[in-house]
Structure formats: structure tokens, C-alpha cells
What we know:
CATH superfamily of the largest domain: HUPs
Strand content: 5-15%
CATH topology of the largest domain: Rossmann fold
Number of domains: 2
Shape: globular
Largest sheet: 4 strands, parallel
Amino acid sequence: xxxxxxxxxxxxxxxxxxxxxxxxxxxxALAVLAVSPVYPESEIVEALQTADKLGIEIVKxxxxxxxxxxxxxNHPDRCYHCKRELFGRLLKIAKExxxxxxxxxxxxxxxxxxxxxxxxxxxxxxxxPLMEAGITKSEVRLISQAVGLDTWNxxxxxxxxxxxxxxxxxxxxxxxxxxxxxxxxxxxxFEQVRVRHHGDIARIxxxxxxxxxxxxxxxxxxxxxxxxKIGYAYITLDMRGYRTGSMNETLNLTDGD
Length: 257
């Protein structure tokens, strides 16, 4: 590519992409970290620490997807509008700096789920080198471990809006509640966790092998007390456990629809 702007989140995919870009292109690779209410605060902190450790140049920007009525209405194409905001900012930075390409960390497995953000990427000319190379999520982790990246086993993390059922309006207070609830659960040791927000109901997803632990009386009481303080009247455990894109299970859509 010669030079590139990368949408960087600090997750396993974008960290590997930014690392490789820095190794191949040096100062001609620039990573852009987006900050907004839809991203967990702890993830922003970790992303900055990871970039600093690896010597990756970072530009931090604030995105404005919350000002978009198309985004906050939370229709099934929500991610399309969010990605258009992010990719538009990446392209603007690229143009200002005379950089030809903008890229994201989408991997080859990401084509298996409903991801309207891919439509935005295609429309706007955003490259996805990991996907283009056919690199899967498991391969991202193997490569990251081989080159010594701490993110090789980092749990997947999507934006907080993905915890809210489609057609339920996205509000800043709702995002804060979700972030607070998930942060508490991670502090208890549940690294892969989602708190799906259903009004007064918190539907907790953890890895299947952690369900028994979460249901232990002493831990269960701590979780009930804390999530009640956060504002949830009913705290439930999803017996199927964590799975990617569980909010898409009620849809009959593909990226082409």
C-alpha cells in the first residue's frame, strides 16, 4: 500500500493489523482510535496503553454517531451508519496527510455474521487486509501470539450499542448502564461477558463454562446488588452463554438485504 490509516480499537484484529503496518511501513502507518459513548471506557485506556507499548503512532478522535438519528433509532442497519461516520473520519485524516489508503481490522470470519458495516466499507473504499488475506480469527490469535502481542487472547469486544435490541432507541444513559454493569462483571473475573439491555432487564451472557460460577450464591448476590444499584430491576442469566451477535438471532437478514 505504501501508506495507510488504520481504524484501531485495541482489539486483537486491529492491533495485529496496526503492528504489521508499522513493521512494514514504519512512519507511513497511522492508527486512529475513535472515542465516543458507544465504546467502553476501559477499552479506550487499554488501546492507548497497547499502542504506546508497541510504539504505534495514534491519533485519537471523537466520533459523532450519537448525533445521527439513523444510528440512535437503532434499526437493523445501525452499524452501517456508525461505520460511515468512522470511515468518513478516517478518509478525511488520510486526505489531510496525503495517505492513499484507509483500512480496518475485519477478518475472514466476519463475513459469517450480519454486518451492515461491511456495506459502508465497500461503498467508501475501505480496505480490510486481514479479510483480503483470508486470515481467520483463530489465525489472528496464533499470529499475534507468535509475534508477542499481549492482545493474542483478548476477548472479542463490540460497541455497547450491540447490547441493545433493535428498534430500541440508543440513549447515552443506557450505554453508561451497560458499561458499568459489564465493567463490574469483568472485575469479578468474567473476561468474556455481555450485558444485553432489555429495559429493566439485564440479560447476562458469559462463556458456557463460567455459567456455574456466576450462579454460585455468594457471587450471585454481589451481582444482583451491584446491577440493581446501576438501575436494573431484573437480573437474568442467559443459559446459552455468550455468543457473537446474539441480538441478530431475531433477524432474517444478510449483508446483501
